[in-house]
């Protein structure tokens, strides 16, 4: 079980791009200490790191660790963290191994209920983060589309053949002059010229 706690410690203190993911707005501060040996100390911020996309759209990107890993224990009705519950499971299993089966069994029943609540809490956090990830993916796709469109327009502007454009302009100007000349000839003829 200590190996599991060490894995959880790695997850709880995970970094992305040099910033701690579960440290709230204190992204340079390691969020947790004492996960394996106890007691667990949270040193991060209680505020989530928000990225504003546009107008009313904002995403909680850097979660506060206390929000992600703490929950209300159904037994004590107090705020506790998943690390304490797992350490309690380790202690209860060790107690059972030492021969205190009845006491360990009773405590394990209570601890398992707390683990189920912790599991539900973590699943809800994962669900919220999955939604944020989908939104970020959509923003990335939209950004790539806009970048492609801008590059296409820029390419069209750069690839314009100046000589061809001048010839086309001259053709259009000649056609316009011919149209004006024809219109002038038609309008010169009056009713008297027609009768005479």
Account of the 3D structure:
The chain has helices at 2-12, 65-69, 82-97, 101-158, 162-188, 191-195, and strands at residues 15-16, 19-20, 32-33, 41-42, 49-54, 57-62, 70-72, 79-81. The protein is built from 6 helices and 8 strands, in the order αββββββαββαααα. By secondary structure, the protein is α+β, with helices and mostly antiparallel strands. The longest helix is centred in the middle third of the chain and has 58 residues, at 101-158. Helix 3 packs antiparallel against helix 4. The chain folds into 2 domains: 2-156, f41 fragment of flagellin, N-terminal domain, CATH 1.20.1330; 159-189. The chain has a two-stranded antiparallel ribbon with strand order 1-2. Strands 3-4 form a two-stranded antiparallel sheet. The protein starts with a helix and ends with a helix.
Structural class: alpha+beta
Low-confidence segments? none
Number of strands: 8
At the third CATH level, what is the topology name of the largest domain? Answer: f41 fragment of flagellin, N-terminal domain
User: How large, in whole angstroms, is the Cα Rg?
Assistant: 36 Å
First and last CA, distance: 116 Å
What count of domains describes the coordinates?
2
Provide the fold topology.
Blueprint: H1 2-12, E1 15-16, E2 19-20, E3 32-33, E4 41-42, E5 49-54, E6 57-62, H2 65-69, E7 70-72, E8 79-81, H3 82-97, H4 101-158, H5 162-188, H6 191-195
Helix pairs in contact: 3-4
Keywords: Cell projection, Cilium, Flagellum
Protein name: Flagellar hook-associated protein FlgL
């Amino acid at each position: 079980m200590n190996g599991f706690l060490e894995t959880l410690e790695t997850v709880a203190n995970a970094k992305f791009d040099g910033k701690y993911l579960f440290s709230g707005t204190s992204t340079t501060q390691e969020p947790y200490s004492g996960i394996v040996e106890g007691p667990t100390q949270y040193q991060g911020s209680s505020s989530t790191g928000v990225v504003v996309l546009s107008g009313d759209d904002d995403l909680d990107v850097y979660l506060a660790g206390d929000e992600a890993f703490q929950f209300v224990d159904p037994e004590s009705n107090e705020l506790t963290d998943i690390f304490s519950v797992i350490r309690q499971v380790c202690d209860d299993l060790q107690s059972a191994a030492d021969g205190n089966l009845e006491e360990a069994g009773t405590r394990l029943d209570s601890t398992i209920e707390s683990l189920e609540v912790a599991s539900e809490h973590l699943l809800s956090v994962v669900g919220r983060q999955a939604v944020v990830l989908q939104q970020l993916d959509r923003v990335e796709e939209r950004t790539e589309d806009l970048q492609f469109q801008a590059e296409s327009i820029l390419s069209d502007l750069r690839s314009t053949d100046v000589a061809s454009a001048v010839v086309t302009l001259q053709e259009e100007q000649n056609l316009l002059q011919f149209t004006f000349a024809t219109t002038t000839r038609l309008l010169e003829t009056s009713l008297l010229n027609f009768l005479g």
